[in-house]
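Item description
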Amino acid sequence: MKSSKNIIIVALLLVILTMAVGYSAFATQLTVNGTAEIIGVWDVKIINIATQEFSEGCDPGDPQYTNTSITFNSKLVKPGDSITYEVTIENAGTIDAKLDNIIFQEQSDGSPAINYVTTEVAHELKAGEQTTFTVKVEYIKDTTEVPSVKTRTITGIVEYVQK
């Protein structure tokens, strides 16, 4: 009886060993390697500000710009005078952009005789495209007295995000 138990145990061990060898003979380990690289470029920027037109005697100054900001210093003489600047924005990247936020605020305690008017900014700016908008500063024509406060500042934010 002991001998038959030993034979059964040895036989089971041989079966398990045979199964293990058979499994390893038919098993294949597959390896997956990969690398991901971001090649998209985000590059929305201001590329120019130019004086378009201005009233006689006015001084449009020398408008300046960087990739992300513009600065101009307008000098108006009399009611009805105005100066118009054209701002050019370019999407020099490879990712399409959409307008997310736009805010133009005039200084609340500035001269009430000075007004700013801006044209609409493009809502979409595809990769490689340019768009323009204008900023017009004007000495309100119906002004009848020279105001005591003679300056007014505009602060603007034009924010594009990836589409």
Q: What stands out?
A: The beta strands are 44-54, 64-65, 70-71, 82-91, 97-106, 114-118, 124-125, 130-139, 154-162. The longest strand covers residues 44-54. The chain has a mean pLDDT of 91.
